[in-house]
Amino acid sequence: MKVLVTGAAGSIGRALGRGLPGLGHELRGLDLVSEPAAGYEHDWVVGDCLDPSTADAAVQGVDAVVHLAGNPDEDSLPAALESHVHTTARLLEAMLAHGVGRIAYASSNHAVGRTPSGSELTTAVRPRPDTFYGTAKVAAEALLSLYVDRFDLGAVAMRIGTFADAPETVRQLSTWLSPDDAVRMVDAAINHPAPGYTVVNGISANTRGWWDLTPGRSIGFDPQDDAEGYATSIQTRPEDDVENAFVGGPHVTSDFVRSAF
Ligand SMILES: NC(=O)c1ccc[n+]([C@@H]2O[C@H](COP(=O)([O-])OP(=O)(O)OC[C@H]3O[C@@H](n4cnc5c(N)ncnc54)[C@H](O)[C@@H]3O)[C@@H](O)[C@H]2O)c1
């Protein structure tokens, strides 16, 4: 399958560049940075996916879009909406114009970050963002749902936990998404014949995970890695209890409270 990966120079984009070609996918990368990441050397678009002509050129000839581009940190509300919602809209419009029918979107646990821990986190909980970043992810998910209902598109919103080579905190023993599982998740999201609009929890098969993996398995994402193998190397910290109290971990603390503008 020919796949456009936006934000291809970022941490998740680079992992997909290493893993997706081996599963038979031919990649085109899009990023603000000019140097192609490994796996994208033959097809690299430099630009901002907010820009209509960039988005238009980038989707031409692909079968699916994996939309990762965006600022993964907290920002003002307008900046977060532009980075996550407007870019998604720009790509969806370009996809419609060029008959591209599939998008896998890097949503986040922070879309439901204010959900308290204590019972299994399903993907049916109400949108409950913990930040403007999370609010923008909620809005981007809503936009995907709208376009799936209006047009002949399939969209998978992947609520990613903590993507990293290895977990580094007690919370991450629950929320870790390994690079190999990220590749498995995206492969499933772009290959499933008819996902409609599906939300999946994007974590590995962590022993301490408390997020429902059923929606992912329903589209063929069967995570194989487990953070527990790193547990003995992780130091406990005083902030662990606070970080484990809500889905969003540190994002629910007062450190992230700021003015919208
Ligand atoms: N890393 C995580 O643990 C995690 C967790 C949840 C969700 N996510 C989401 O996954 C996506 C990728 O995360 P990441 O950790 O790889 O981030 P990253 O910051 O490492 O990479 C993002 C990439 O996107 C590019 N980019 C940003 N805005 C762009 C634009 N308008 N047009 C083109 N390129 C643009 C940047 O140059 C960068 O290379 C983000 O949307 C993030 O919100 C990540």
From TrEMBL:
GO terms for molecular function: oxidoreductase activity. Keywords: NAD, Oxidoreductase. The keyword NAD applies. Residues 3-162 form the NAD-dependent epimerase/dehydratase domain. InterPro entries: Epimerase_deHydtase, NAD(P)-bd_dom_sf. SUPFAM superfamilies: NAD(P)-binding Rossmann-fold domains. Gene3D superfamilies: NAD(P)-binding Rossmann-like Domain. Belongs to the NAD(P)-dependent epimerase/dehydratase family. This is NAD(P)-dependent oxidoreductase.
